[in-house]
Amino acid sequence: MGNVIQLINKEIQSQYFEDDGKIPWIIGFSGGKDSTMMLQLVWYALKEYPVELLQRQIYVVCNNTLVENPKIIAFTEHILNKIEKAAFEQSMPVFVVRTTPKLEDTFWVNLIGKGYPAPNNAFRWCTERLKISPTTEFIKNKISQVGQAIILLGTRKEESASRSASITNHTKEGTRLRSHVLPNAFVFSPIQDVTVSELWQYLNQVESPWGADNKQLNALYRNANGGDCPLVIDDTTPSCGNSRFGCWVCTVVKKDKSMEALILNGEDWMEPLLEIRELLVTTRNNPDWREDTRRDGSDGIGPYKPAKRAEILEQLLRAQKEIKQRDETISLINYQELVAIQITWYRDSIFNLSVAEIYNRVNGTDFSDNDFKDQLVFEKQLLKEACTQHPEDVKLIEELLELQRSKILMVKTRGLNNDLENHLEKYVKSLNVTTNAD
């Protein structure tokens, strides 16, 4: 094992001091065993040199999908804080970067807001939005600043035949760098030839340079009987799957073995999470839960019906309330997502459902739908006077204003005309139906 580490050590040093204009290194860090070993090896390899020689900057990038297993994300955040502190104290050129999906791309805004069905192998809409895009955005920014970037991944050939083939096929001859789908980006996998037994031997014997306890990491794996998800940077990177740590809402796999194992090993507070996931699995293909047309208007099974979206939200909030009674720091959905869900419902012409009412019903609070209600009282009175002959138009105009406001709040005005036209069309159709009925 010692010879293996020495070879990797020399390889890291050789690549770091390569005369390439100090292209920045971007280390994909999940907090799991593979990325931990890789970062630890890089850290110790560079510690052998004086600080003034360490001119190449290293960015430790950790992506939080916002639906990570709470146990894992808490552990990872604890480690990231230690890395930041140690890098500063030891004058290492290491900078921690946390990436998250854009608000309009988060899991709950898409599933509850837009009604996207729970992901499966045929429609895995989550990977691009939650994992690839946030990290890719950071990599692109670095490339635009300095021209190129080298991405370090803790991928190993032993992990799967497909991953081994991918590493081999994309490796440039005569170098350990392999091409990346992004222009001017390359991938370096220092531990690609390390076996899992060698990996754990190293982590159990070599102390963490940032003061973490690798025995805790080992215990986490034993309790969950799983593995860590790699940093996903393109479509060729394997998804988590099977018993890997990852998104607790993942419905691509049949069972979340890691969460089930954690519950069996004493983490019973996760049971509400498992219940929500099972709800998503069992109702995904239920025609009673889905619209008859797709979001683009074409024929075929479509998004979740509005009432079902509201039902999922209520169950999610109830699960969050139950978990917060055990640990106040855990949130399953944040305030910004709740706002975005309401805005998205407006854009889908869903005005009979209120996020505030659902939230109040679950938590016994007294939130209002419209924070600006009092400020608009005079304008609304003028509107009612102007629509005396057709009072039903007041509701229509208020709904159109909500659509316009939703676009502004989401900083995404493209498509506003279509949204307004679609809502007007639905309104006219409803009038025709009423007239015919009369």
Structure description:
The protein is α/β, with parallel strands linked by helices. The chain contains 16 helices and 6 strands. The protein has helices at 2-16, 33-47, 70-89, 107-113, 126-146, 161-170, 196-205, 214-224, 257-264, 271-283, 306-324, 335-347, 355-363, 377-386, 392-409, 416-437, and strands spanning 25-28, 58-63, 94-99, 149-152, 177-179, 185-188. It has a 6-stranded mixed beta sheet, sandwiched between helices. Helix 2 crosses helix 7 (196-205) and helix 15 packs antiparallel against helix 16. The chain is elongated. The relative contact order is 0.11.
Q: What is the approximate shape? A: elongated
Q: Main sheet?
A: 6 strands, mixed
Oligomer: single chain
**Helix content class:** 40-55%
Low-confidence stretches: 160-174, 226-243, 371-378
Mean pLDDT: 84
The ordered string of helix (H) and strand (E) elements is HEHEHEHHEHEEHHHHHHHHHH
Q: How large is the count of helical segments?
A: 16
Per-chain topology:
Layout: H1 2-16, E1 25-28, H2 33-47, E2 58-63, H3 70-89, E3 94-99, H4 107-113, H5 126-146, E4 149-152, H6 161-170, E5 177-179, E6 185-188, H7 196-205, H8 214-224, H9 257-264, H10 271-283, H11 306-324, H12 335-347, H13 355-363, H14 377-386, H15 392-409, H16 416-437
Parallel strand pairs: 1-2, 1-4, 2-3, 4-6
Antiparallel strand pairs: 5-6
Helix pairs in contact: 1-2, 2-7, 4-12, 10-11, 11-13, 12-15, 15-16
